[in-house]
Design goal:
Shape: elongated
Structural class: mainly alpha
Number of helices: 2
Bound molecules: zinc ion
Largest sheet: 2 strands, antiparallel
Distance between the termini: 45 Å
Helix content: 40-55%
Length: 66
């Protein structure tokens, strides 16, 4: 029973690490192209050090990629 739970936690950690790597790769690709997504609900994209008209900072800024 405990092993089962532990396995699930490990799977979760595994998945989380993978998605962090993919996220980092995605941001780096965006920065290479000279833009960054934001968390804005209007799906604004901005310059890597920019802020969208609704006040959302670029994800690159927010996560310290800049
Ligand atoms: Zn916006």
């Amino acid at each position: 029973m405990i092993n089962e739970v532990r396995k699930r936690v490990e799977n979760y950690e595994e998945g989380r690490k993978k998605s962090e790597v993919e996220f980092t790769k995605f941001i780096e690709e965006c920065l290479d192209e000279g833009w960054s997504p934001t968390k804005c609900s209007m799906c604004c994209v901005v310059e890597p050090d920019g802020i969208c008209p609704h006040g959302f900072r670029s994800i690159a800024l927010e996560y310290g990629f800049m």
